[in-house]
Design brief:
The complex is a heterodimer of chains A (about 270) and B (about 260). With about 270 residues, chain A is of the alpha/beta class. Chain A has one domain (about 5-265): P-loop containing nucleotide triphosphate hydrolases (Rossmann fold), CATH 3.40.50. Chain A has helices at about 70-75, 115-120, 120-125, 130-140, 155-170, 185-200, 215-220, 250-265, and strands at about 30-40, 45-55, 60, 85-90, 100-105, 175-180, 205-210, 220-225, 230-235. In chain A, the strands form two sheets. In chain A, strands 5-6-7-3-8-9 form a six-stranded mixed beta sheet, with helices on both faces. Chain A has a three-stranded antiparallel beta sheet with strand order 2-1-4, with no helix packed on it. Chain B has about 260 residues and is mainly alpha-helical. Chain B has helices at about 1-25, 35-45, 45-80, 80-85, 90-95, 100-110, 115-140, 140-155, 160-200, 205-215, 220-245. The longest helix of chain B is centred in the last third of the chain and has 42 residues, at about 160-200. The interface of A and B includes residues 110, 127 and 173 of A.
Chain lengths: ~270, ~260
Amino acid sequence: MGSDSQTPPIPTGSSPYQETAASKSGTGVAVDLYLDRLSFGETFIVGDLHLALQQGRITCLLGPSGVGKSSILKILAGFIPLPAKSHLRASDGAELAGRLSYMDQNDLLLPWANVLENVVIGARLRGEPPDVSRARALLQDVGLAGYETARPVQLSGGMKQRVALARTLMEEGAVVLMDEPFSALDAITKYRLQDLAAGLLKDRTVLLITHDPMEALRIGHVIHVLSGDPVTLSPALRPEGAIPRDPAADDLRHHYSKVMESLALSGRTDI
Amino acid sequence: MKAIRILITLGGLILIWDLITRLLGLPKFILPAPLLVLEALIHHMGLIAHHSLTTALEILLGLLFGGLFGMISALLISAYAPVRQWVFPLLIGSQAIPVFAIAPLLVLWLGYGIAPKVVMGMIIIYFPVTVGFLDGLNRTPPAWRDLARLMQQSGQRSRFQNLYRLYRHVKIPFALPSLASGIRVATAIAPIGAVVGEWVGASSGLGYLMLHANARVQTDLMFASLLVLSLMAVSLYFLVDYALRRALPWQPDTGHDDSSQRSL
């Protein structure tokens, strides 16, 4: 194991007309987050921040490391309590808890369980009978059919992250929170996984945290840059064209320089 | 290769031992020659076997009950704050009392049979198992805990059931390598409890046999008993170690840093 020739090809993402196992998700929902002031103890992180996640769209939150991107995601996930005078609302008025999926930059696969068991772990944790056929279909979608009984240690980094993607999609949460999901991968694998995710996350409301401007431009419907001192959230940037986009396209270059400009404004000296 | 290494080491040690007795001309009641010990071992085979069985049973029962209690304690301490706050400090404090000091008490309360020895073994074994397992349970990667919590939010089950499933599917498997380390340590020190218990007061067992042999200056019999005790302890350790490795094949084991090749 481990040689490149054994790595199964990464599918190029599903066509918009093809029904995939990933399409089955909860009813779409938009999310509205307002933070009056976010701080850890004495350390002020960000204030007066308003972030809207559009239904069925991928919203990218782009910024340098240490700027507070992950904290915002953790508030959405409920890992950090919502600060005072702030709000977190779903468009249908119902609770957001229980309708979230989460994907970390680490694959978080259980080393003792095989690939299929890892994909259905959510159902196991809830004591529900796992939908094995859907899990198999999702593994097919991420190009890992035939690897159901493999252990994580036998897989490459990219394959592990594909299993993590399948596990994330297996959760039928309408809102998907992704914390730099491809940051640990090499450039080529990352490029292919972005294509794959763009196809499979169709119809879900996604918040994608990233520090890679190219990633944001490739698969973000809406891009916000979080930078500066004090940290501020840039207005929404909406590059044209369906995702995944070609980073070499002319109209994207214009957005690219815009993003770089906002990032350069950060002026942080502590990096 | 490993077996040859062990044989060379053992053979060398026996040779040195033999040389010492010959060169220094030590009387056999001080240090009997290896051959005399072997002779005693064969001559007293039935006697040693009888007492070995007692000791083996004490060690195994101590290991079993001590291990079980240790695991249950670690789970309770990890899952329930009141147990952690009220009982755990008590357990740590209890370890400050030397087992040797309470051995006579145990014999007084539980008699001369195997019960006080099993309890001694339990007391010795309990702590490394509890601490090892608890360390593992407390070291569940935080990201995994968060992910599991998020996944459980869409379920409708009770808090207790969710906690049970979190332990069953995530926390306990993550803690197993630590538990295995605790059990390894416990296995290595398990014979201490049994032998100390037998010294204080017993009617059978290798410790009892050694004490009597010593009193009658049957040093060769004492050495023979000691040899059997060591063999028992070492084989028990390797048996447990082998079983634990087989049970946890996914456990990362990078071996030693100075080995040029990985040996399994």
